[in-house]
Amino acid sequence: MARLIQVEEVQFASSPSTANSSLERSLRLCEELEGGNILFFPQIPFPFAQEDREFLLKQKQKSSKHRKNIAYKPIVDKITNISHEDERDPLRLLEVMRKYSQEVTHFLAKLLPSYASCWRLDFSSFRPFQEKDRKLRLRARNDLLHTDAFPTRPMHGMRILRFFTNINPTEDRKWMTSESFQILAEKFAGQAVSLPKPVNHNLFGKLVRLLKKSVKQMGLPVVLRSPYDVFMLKMHNFLKENREFQSQCPKDYWSFPPGSCWLVFTDQVSHAALAGQYALEQTILVPRSCLLNPEKSPISILERLSGENLVDPFFIEH
Ligand SMILES: O=C(O)CCC(=O)C(=O)O
Ligand SMILES: [Fe+2]
Question: Which residue ranges have their beta carbon within 6 Å of ligand 1?
Fold first, then answer.
């Protein structure tokens, strides 16, 4: 089960003598994250202007029904999922999201330099809806325990690392967590959730992948899932759809107070958001090659369980 590891006020090294202790701290934090724990920061550990927070809190979303979070894509510097009837100042929103994404990335790059040397920046999101009693279709529900897998963004073995910030001035964000991916995979993989088929390395398999890749490069919306991604998606759906698991599994409850942040590998720690409104989040993808303990990653666990290679090593890592 996940533990909460409080990270005390972070001072970054300014001299060679403090560089060693920064490095030690960084390795210790990677160890905790990869061990399935949650790093907790009582205060936002980087500048975040009060007027930016107030701007976000003023975003009046008409109804949370079927609505998705607002996403910011740092690579193309664009916001998606805003509806024009809700959004009166899209440029300002873009500016605030860009700033948040940059500050998180900058902070984490200093805190976890070994990850930063090879990570890929994924989306950032603004979550303006009240999670309690939020009406979403079952597989999209946040209040059911799950490990993360994105239907439209296959990971090819990369890890999903997410940094959350509760910007609500008065209300905690409430989470529940349960067992780690390792325990869940040992329980369900190969039984309730069928193990993935190995990567097809024959000429035909290679040709199909090459073809799909070129279709994608032409700008068509093809999702290139590895066997690993197929499994992770099945596991996500299975957990949310399994009433017995949801009610019987061991649970821990966490309250993240206003102004706090937390960092967690959400493909490993099963979690659910039970209540809270107004959070920000940045997703970062960490390749297996940059992990301190790659053997603890979901891809390695599944490859051990299946005895098969579940990602194509010659394929793009995203
Ligand atoms: O918004 C949150 O606090 C977490 C929701 C969640 O589990 C997710 O977005 O995958
Ligand atoms: Fe999640």
Answer: 127, 142, 148, 164, 173, 266, 271, 273, 279
